[in-house]
Amino acid sequence: xxxxxxxxxxxxxxxxxxxxxxxxxxxxxxxxxxxxxxxxxxxxxxxxxxxxxxxxxxxxxxxxxxxxxxxxxxxxxxxxxxxxxxxxxxxxxxxxxxxxxxxxxxxxxxxxxxxxxxxxxxxxxxxxxxxxxxxxxxxxxxxxxxxxxxxxxxxxxxxxxxxxxxxxxxxxxxxxxxxxxxxxxxxxxxxxxxxxxxxxxxxxxxxxxxxxxxxxxxxxxxxxxxxxxxxxxxxxxxxxxxxxxxxxxxxxxxxxxxxxxxxxxxxxxxxxxxxxxxxxxxxxxxxxxxxxxxxxxxxxxxxxxxxxxxxxxxxxxxxxxxxxxxxxxxxxxxxxxxxxxxxxxxxxxxxx
Length: 352
Ligand code: ADP
Ligand code: MG
What we know:
This protein is an alpha+beta fold. The protein is 33% helix and 26% strand. The protein has helices at 3-16, 60-81, 89-95, 106-121, 131-143, 149-157, 188-202, 294-307, 312-318, and strands at residues 27-28, 39-46, 49-56, 101-103, 164-167, 172-175, 207-212, 215-220, 228-233, 241-247, 251-256, 261-264, 267-270, 273-274, 279-280, 286-291, 321-328, 331-336. Strand 9 and strand 10 form a beta hairpin.
C-alpha cells in the first residue's frame, strides 16, 4: 500500500467513526450547536488517493447533485493532468519534441502557471520536471545503494522547468529541451481540490470542503457557522494531532518527510528532492501551508520542504502562511510565518 493511500485511509476511517476522534488533516465539525445543519459527504478513489467532498446547507438532492458535479470535475482534471494516461495533456507534452507547441486545456495551463510561479519564487527549489531524480532515488531506495554522483548529475541535467514556456494566449506549452518530463505530483492534488471547490461554490454551496488525499480546500465555515477545525499530525506520534487550526475559505496542505521516505544504509531519505543538489531534501520533517488556493498551498508545502527556514521570505512574497516542524533531539521545534498564529485561534480569524 502506498503511503499516500494510507494517509487518505486514515481520513476515511476518521470519517466513518462516530466517536470524537483525531482526524488526520481533516475537518472536525464543532459539537456545540444544538441543531447542527446536516452535512453530506462522499468519498471516491481518484488521483491515486481518496477524494472526499462534503457539503452542507442544502437538501439531500441538491447535495447529491453538487457532489456529482464536483466529482465530475475531479475526473475531468485527472484525465488532463495524469502522467500515466496516454491521452492526457501532460502525456502529450511529455511525448512532444523539443520546440513543438502543444495545445493544452486552460486548466492544464493554469496549474502549469502556478507551478512556474512557485518555481520562480522558490528559485528552482520547486520544479515539476524533477521526475528523473525522483526515479533515481526511488531505485536507490529499492536496491539499498546510494546513486553514483555521475548518475545524479546526469539526472539533474534533465530537470529544468525554466526550459518549458507557457503561452496563455494560444494555450500552448513548449519544451525547449529534449527529455524533460513534467510530473505534477506536488501540485495536482491541491489544484484539483481547489477546482472542485470552485464547482461547489458556483452551485451555491457556502459550507463544505474538498479533501484530496489530505490536501483540503475549505469553503466558508463549517455546518455550525464556526471556522473549520483541522489537525496537523504529530511527526513523532503519527495518528495524533500536534497542532489544531481554525480556517475559513482556505486551503490547508501538509507535506511530510516523515511519512514518505526511503532508507539507505540506515539513513532516511525524503521523497522530496532538492533539484539544486539532486539529493533528497534535508529540510523540515513537516510543512503545513495555509493559502487562499489549493494549488499554491500544495506547491508551497513541497517548496518549503526543500527550502526550510530559508524559504520564509519567498513564502511571504507569495502570500502564504506556513508552519514547519523540525525534529531535533526527539522533540518538535516549530518555525512559522508571522500570520500563522491567527489560524490557531477559534473564531478570531475572520478571513473571507
Ligand atoms: P505528497 O505527494 O505526499 O502530497 P508533495 O505534494 O510534497 O507530497 O509532492 C511530492 C512529490 O512531488 C514527490 O513524490 C515527487 O513526485 C514530486 N517532487 C519531489 N520533489 C519535488 C520538487 N522539488 N518539486 C516538485 N515536485 C517534487
Ligand atoms: Mg505539494
